Amino acid sequence: MTTRTLFLRAALFVAVTLTLAPTAIGAEGPPGHTHAFAAVGEPAKPTVSTRSVQVTMVDMAFEPETVKVKAGEMVHFVITNKGELLHEFTLGTPAMHSEHQKEMATMMDHGMITATGVDQKMMHMDMGGMHMSHDDPNSALVPPGETRELTWKFSKDAEIEFACNIPGHYESGMVGKIERSR
Amino acid sequence: MSAKHIASAWVARLALATIVSAPTIAGAETYDLVLENKTVNITGKDRTATLINGQLPGPVLRFKEGENVTVHVTNRLKEETSIHWHGLLLPSEQDGVPGVSNGFRGILPGETYTYNFQIKQAGTYWYHSHSATQEQSGMYAPIIIEPKNREPFRYDRDYVVVLSDWTDENPDGIVRNLKLYPGYYNEHKRTLVNFFREAGEKGLGAALKDRKMWGDMRMDPTDIADVAGYTFLINGKSPADNFTALFKPGERVRLRFINSAAMSYFDVRIPSLKMTVVQADGNNVQPIPVDELRIAVAETYDVLVQPREDKAYSLLAESMDRTGFARGTLAPREGMVGEIPPHRPRPLLTMADMGMSFGPTGLDRGTPHPETDAPGHVAPMDMEGMDHGAPQASGATHTMPDGSTMAGMSHDAPASAGPTHTMPDGSTMTGMDHSAMGHGAMADPLANDTGAPPGAKVLSYRDLKALSSLYDAREPDRIIEVRLTGNMERFFWSMNGRMYNEAQPIVLRYGERVRFRFINETMMNHPMHLHGMWMLPRVGNGARDPIKHVVNIKPGSSLDVDIPADAEGNWAFHCHLLYHMEAGMMRKVTVVREAAAND
Question: What residues in A contact B417, CB-CB < 8 Å?
Fold first, then answer.
């Protein structure tokens, strides 16, 4: 790597980190910090009685497109990517997705994610103690051919979508609805 | 076989369940088209147009992938005509270019000609006359092909947006005027007054030098388009008529842009709305959100938009020469009119803008008429470092698993690609878009300078990545140099210095991969179109380089475009600017089997 490259990357990361710092993604806030994802429920640990829901990703769609949950229910999502591109499964309100899309565009621009995968080296590069990553509990990045799991407790009453916020994917219709009954 | 009624409706309301499309059995449908002269009134004056089924544009042909299509075309004009199915993969005999397509001599007055072919693809295409200047006077229409499998995106409404340029003049008169005085339509020609103003600003020496260079180029610096005086239309409607597409807030709307203009490029945007490009020239691409796109003549782009507010959105398509615009409206109700933003100044081409890039090895390239070389010839040139998509100057490259390079970083980056390019909003590096960076000598030859504000994303070919790779990224078997040449002061246009009627066909071997190395030595954009086979512009995305039927070659730039020669027969290859093709910027491409080539 040339000196110029290093400098460029350093500059990029400062910019990225500053951009991402105030957001939920990658922010390792102090104890008691309110995470944005808290608006749609809370992460949970699955037990034998936890309901499992299979979600398949294809290029720019989820199957199924609606998942019914009961208020307060804990659901274990098993998410498989059968497409050729990298996809994301994120639980959030439409406004949260809209914000997160900007972050994903930045990550894409800076090579932390590409159209087809995650660059772990770029993603976890440590710049002067500032660290960024895509590891919020309401979200999973799923490379092509792989499966990820995520357990969530739907303890909050909100308009919740599961969405892929990789640039252009939500816009193409890669979003589903959580139908929450009482 | 059943006669199918051709719907004239522009709007197809789709069920939300389009994502799971029912399997369709390929049918065999028959379509009837009648060509005749009709009186239209676009500008307030009655004029004679050449129409398909009495409509401007002609009727939308809705095909299904796999369908066997029969089209009866009846010629009620007083002259020979033809219909070419733009972008469709079909046998040469069905391609509809008189004197080029195998055995096709055009459709004579009074004759009914029957086309018959199978649909082998899906997406948005169009059809038009390939005879004389009939296309200019109204003979163009959309083709929509429904795919066999579900599409990789979802939408609630579907609109075709046909952009075109209408003139009240007789197109043959335009040809005469251009031949007599090529600057005839150039209302912005530099004058003596301009010259002295420039001399004041730049100093006399610089102004003189600039003038001399323009003179040497035999071009006029304001010749961004040859023909002005156009009225720009959306689906046949002038800006005053305001084509309106309805939506309910929150719905996803698919817009199928087709540039059916004879001579006009458009800069397309919907202020305050992102457009997500999902198809280019009928082929799916990885979705790319943009603020604006430039559509070259004869290209198509499909975009998705999601207007969320209960208000009217303007659909603007400014002509690249800024002599006017086409306008439509996306609205929740009929009769609403969107705001129109201020007029933007026209770009003035400069020598720096052109980059004076006459190809990788400068002006001395050895092969003056390489297209006539025998099959099998490989141009004696360095194969390395020729991929103009390769980021030779940029240190911050990043190779993706599929071998392509990161779009955001792969511009032939000027040394300035440093931290200074953090955009004013502090957010993204989309400011790497060189269109917003002014023009150094190393400006990205693919960036489109539309005058968009800093930070706005303008689509470039580099952003287009095929969703499915139809072809691998292998190196070509040989390189054929295609210099785009012309003499604007005498209005002739050519390739490698020869006009169509002076040139031999370009002979390709069936199955070979050929690279057309385009070198645009002129001051104009040329939308180069090859019939019957896909063109793969090498823009740095490896096997995901876009799959196109028209590739724009910017003024003074060069671009490598690979052609998998997978369709036998005779095919037209030309600049899709109608008057450039008419003036000679065209070739016949003949694809022959190996055995036949050795005869």
Answer: 8
